[in-house]
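1st attempt posting a full record on here, be nice pls
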Amino acid sequence: MNVKKTLAEHVYGELKEQIVSGRLKYGDRLPSMNSLCVFYNVGIRTVKDVMRRLKEEGYIRTEERKAAAVIYKAAPEDSGIHSVLQRKTSILAVHETIYILIPLLLSFSASLFDEEELRQMTRRITTLRRRHPKASEQACRNCIYTMLERSHNLLFRDLFSSLETYARLPFFQDHGRFLELVQEYNEFDSTAWVMGSIPSRDAHEITRRFRLMFKAVSSAIRRYLDEMHIRYGDVLEETSVEYAWAAERGRDHYYTQIVRDLINKIGTGFYKEGAFLPSEAALARQYKVSVSTVRRALSMLGELGFSKTLNGKGTVVFLQSDSSTFQCMKNKTYRRDTMLYLSGVQLMAIAVHPAALLAFDHIDRQTIQKLRQRTSRTGSIPLADLTRCVIDNQTLKPMKTILQELEKLMNWGYYFSFFSEGPSHADLLTKYSLTALEHLAGGRKDAFASSLSECYCHILSFVRDFMSRCGLPEAAGLLTPGIVSI
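the predicted structure (as tokens):
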């Protein structure tokens, strides 16, 4: 069982970081408490506790029937540069991650625009050319959020927001020297030029231009921090403060962790269909929780259609069926959880490609041999082993964090619960995964990365289409991404 900080601590930390970093400036209004409840998937009591703490610590002002306002101001003599220099390495790593990953999300999202949306976006792009550079940057940022929302993915916008907040971009944009350094990057024209690629729907060109823009920003930040390092002297870096992201926000209760683990064991064949699960007391000892927590987990497992509790006998295992899926899709919470799962698979299908390219040269022959041995075992899940290998050999820490969070959503047992035999060397996913392993062993970097992405595309298409037929029509909006490599 994972021991995580409370939801209140998580929400407090994110809002405080947005205020201190300058993302939310003095006088800005926070979203309403109801909006925060929806965004963070928490209850109103949690949000009230967070707002009270932020108010007591002098970050916000609250008024009756009004959204809370930011009242935090850094002292005039504190430019914030020392705080940024203390995180120099990790901030630069986040900007590198933005450069590698976010253009892929944007090019995919842009491909989903219909004709009317493209016309609206074209009009917004036209106005960029007439704006001051700083106003143009803000308008560009708004367009980016619009594009990410258009994907219908529950994670795209949240991921970019968390990266942008940690990267302290508002801090740098307030310094004229930084803007000068951006403009000195010869390959980058302007934000209007970057956004001008969107109406074309050309994924390669959209990706190329956004990468040039993010590269210009990253290069300018590196040069600016180098200059500030010389000006302010040695500043000790805080290596303990790294980028963090919570893809499972609001789903880290103990009982949901137990449910996910049980589904994994059912889907992968550890608990066979028709068999009885261990007793409530045995499960409580196994997961180190109370019997009441186990009962809540078993209740959810039954509502999801993976089990049925029989009076005086215990809980018997079932695999997925159309009727059970139809039934659980009537529950709002389960609908959102399913959309979050599919969103995670879709994001992994995009993110694993550049991540695999980064990890490829660090995977040695001994590791490949161990992968061959593990994947040859009956009941193994080769894709899980390959993904873990990519994560373990990831040198870009923020990318590693993102993959680790997405891995928690993968729930291999959920996919395999559609097959009566569980994981087998005959199923398509295993075949695709073993092909990826052969590309890895053969030194074919691009083919390895593309094959891994295709594996997640297969999962997305398979589960999405089933859910669309079984009471979750919005799942159809999560389209299968193509591969864009530059």
